Every structure is written in structure tokens, then in C-alpha cells.
Amino acid sequence: MKNSGQMAHVIHHPAGSLRRRLWKQRWLLLMVLPGILWFILFKYATYAGLALSFTNYGFRKTVSFVGLRNFERLFRSASFLNAFRNTLLISLYNIVFYFPFPILIALLINELRSLRARRTVQFLIYIPYFFSWVVVGTVFVNLLSPSSGIVNQILRSLGMESIYFMSDVRWFRKVLILSYIWKQMGYGAVIYVATLSTVDPQLYEAAEIDGCGRFRQVLYITLPTIKPTIITMLLLNLSHVLMIFDQVMVMYNASVYSVSDVLQTFSYREGILTGNLGFGMAVSLFVGIVSLLLVLGTNWISKHFLDDSIL
Amino acid sequence: MMTAKRANAIRESNARKAFRICNVIFLTLVCVIVVIPIWNVLITSLAADKDVMGGVYLLIPRSLTFKSYARVLNSGYMRGFWNSLFIAGVGTVLAMVITTPMGFALAQKQLVARNFFMKAISLTLVFDAGIIPLYVLIRMLGLIDNRWALILPFMLSTFNLIIVKNFMMSIPTSFVESAWLDGCNDLMALIRIVIPMAVPILSAVTLFYFVSFWNRYTEAVMFINNSSKYTLQVMLRALIYQSDGSLGEGNIVYDNTKMAVMVLGMLPVMLIYPFVQRYFVTGLMLGGVKE
User: How high is the ipTM of this complex?
Assistant: First the structure.
């Protein structure tokens, strides 16, 4: 009798305390509620929606299961493979040419002596980050225009031919990367500068006494300090590098289609403009999974290898 | 020995000086590359018609007139401006009303199911369903051609939420606990104690939200087909790449007028940025981007 009473107590206690905890935290729970509902509706419902990629959703009134047919069609489609290739190439160029740039700029800003100069540089280079891709696209159209653009004026004054940057298949991807650098470098640089300011100045003093030159101080003190930020930024960058969309939608035109059609523009055209939503979903699911693998893979690599290396 | 050391020090400092000068030149060049195109947009928008004909890249102002702005103010582009301002204004307010309390609640270690919430939220940072599922959802909700289609799906950003949460975690718990002792509930503690301490980070996040609403392009193209509901960015893209004739005689729109619309497209953000800028460094550093 005594025993079972104790059992009941043990069993009932957690439930009672949970109810008490919920009641005690009613305000906190009320605060997360709208956000949780938002995540369910606008994130997890869209994840569930991806199941439509196994159906013929879009054309007919009735939706039927078609198995992997959308994916079969996808991998046989030459324009899909071209879009995939373009996306990978643009992403690769992005990582190679854009990614180190803000780090370099931040290191150089950090070397400026005057606080006011540091602030001014940061203020100015951050500005383009706030421009829409439409604005940035227009800025580059003006800058690179074959007739009035300043770049072609310089080229002509050096006795060269005008280059049709925006419609030349050899140049268009370079324009995409350059405009990406122009728009985004300030954002990255300011984040790195903020991290750099957390380095204890005593470390530099100690290194100097030990006879470390400026360059080795950067190598052994500065870079290790910003390593976590670099990895975080790399992961963030990788998580949306395959999602490149706005920039291409705004800047591309028919003449550079072959080098700039990316997965997102492809899925937009096939899914929404053509109306084959099930097929478009298959593209979306493919991009989402490849992105996820890219991020998780990089995360795994950084965890297992970079942690014991000197970077 | 002594002289060798001194010579070394002098050589070092010369190299150092050379580096400093190169550094200043390089960073100045970077700033010039950033500023010149913006300067060009500004002075082109203020130039007279005759000075922008025949395609020139203006770097030195030749004339100063607000004629292009007068033209834009009387055109259909103002409707796009108000549409965008409505979306960005309402969207930003709603976003902050949701993000701030949620960030605060998630920062409280005792919150029920906190780990589960954090895992479910972090997943959305690395996996994105993409545009087609969102389009289908908007269509099912009957929001096509509705301005709310550009507000509701974007009134929370996982990234901003985590920045706010991380900042709130850096506030010592004793502040919230002392508010409890004064008889405050969690909501009152948030409003009276935590929000005043979080002004820098909240200002930065407000600006990020505003920018994301104001600049949104692709979704605006996908969700809005009715031209009276077009946002300014959509109209601006159309103006630059194919002119629609509503701004000039026939089909000719002078560059000065195009650039005046551009300025309109950057205006609200550029007005807010200088005031929020001083919070950026501290705000982003404390909030961090890492979980």
C-alpha cells in the first residue's frame, strides 16, 4: 500500500510539475507562440509541400502520384544540367573570389591608425549592402555601358575596343561576381572588423617583445581569433550560394542565358511560368538537399580537421 | 651589435611606413570604387535633359535642377513607392513585434522545450524549401495579388531571430530576476528592463528587416501580377530594362529621370542608415552570428 502510494506519487509528480512549469512560463510561451506558428506555416509547411515533387501537381485538377518521374526528367534535361553547371561555377567563383575579400579588407582596416579613418571606410563600403539587386544591376549597367559607361570610355582611351559586358557570354559571369563583391564586401568586412576588435592588445605586445613581425602577428594571433567567424561566414555563404536568384533575375538577358541560367531561374521558368509545379518542386527539393549536404559537409570538415590545425 | 639592431629597427619602420601608405591608397581606392557609381546616380538625377543626352557618364555636375524629380513625383512610380513603403513599414513593425519577444523567450534557459525549439529553428537556417513551395503556399492561401503576400512570409528571419536571442543571452539573468521581485511578469520585464538595454541590436535588426522588405524583387514579381500593386523595385527594373513611356514623350525616358527613380528606390534606407550605423559594430559584435 505504502509502496503503490509512492509509485503514484512518482508517476504523477512530473506531470503536475510540467503543468506548473507551463503555467509559470505562460508569458514566455505566449511570446514564442506567434513565431512558432509562423515557422510551422511558412517553413515546415513548405517542407511538407516538397512532397508534391513526386506528383504531377500543376497541370490537372486531379493530383496523382508519379513516383520519381519528375526527377528522371530532371536529370535527362539538358537545360537543367546546364543550369546546375552554371550554379556550381558561379558558386565556386563566389567562394574563391568574393569570400576572402572582406577578410582582407578587414585586416587592412584594422591596420589604419586613425579611428575616424576606420569608421569612415566602414561607413562607406557598407552602403551598397543596402541597395537592392535592381539598384546594383542598374549601377553596373551604367558603369559598363558600351556607349556611355566609364569602363568602356577608359578602354577606348587606351585604344581598345568597347566590350559588351552585359551581353557577352565571356564576361557576364565575371560581372555577376564583381557586382556581388561590390554589394556585399562591406557587410562581411564590418563583421570581421568587429571580431578583430576583441583581440587582447597585450597579445600583440607580447608577440612584439618575442620578436614577431607584423605579418607573423597577423598569422598567429589575428587569424586564429577570427577563425570561428570565418567558418561561420563560410557556412552561411554556402547555405545560400546555390540559392542565387535575385541577382541573376535582375541582371541577365537572353544573350547570356547559356552562361547565367541558374537552378532557381530554371525552376521559376519551369514551375511558375510553364505551370508544371510538380516538376519545379523537384528542382527546389534537389537544390535544398544539395545545399544542406554542402553545409553539413563543410561543418563536418571544419569540426574534424580545422580545429587542430593552425588554419 | 647596437648599430645593427638600430639599422634593423629603421629598416623595419621604413617597410612599415611603405605598407601604411600603400594601405591608405588601397583602401581609398576601394572607397572611391564604392562611391563613384552612387555619386554618378545622384548627379545624373539632378542634371538637365540636355546634359544627359548622347550617353555620358557624369562625374562632374554640369547643371543642377529638380526637374526629373518633379516628373517622377507626378508619375505612376509614386504608387510603387507607396506600395513599397506600406509593405516595408507594416512588415518591419510586425517583424519586430514577433522577433523581439521570441528572441527574449528563447534566451531564457528555463523555457519549456527550449532545445527542441532551437533545433527546429536552426534547421531552417541550413535547409530552405525554395521558391516553388512558397509560391504554391501563397496561392493556396489566396494571397496572389495581395500585398500581404510580401509581408507575411518574411516577417520573421531566422538569422535576425538568432542575433536577437544571442544578445539577450548576454544580459545577466539578475536583471530579469530583479524585475520579477518587483512584481513584473516576463512581458513587463522584457518591456521595462530588457528592451532598453537592447536598443543597439534592435535598431540594427529593424534596419535589416526594413531593407529586406524594401528591396525584395523576385517574390514581388512572382506574387503580384496586378500593375496597380507593383512595388517600386519591380517598376524600377522594368524602367531600366524596357521603358514603358509613362515618364517622357513617346518612349524616350532620359537618364536623369531614370536615375531620379533610382534615388527614390534607395531613399528610405539611406535616410535611416546613418542613424543606425553607429550601432552596427557593437550590435553585431555582441550579437554575433554564431549559435
Answer: 0.89
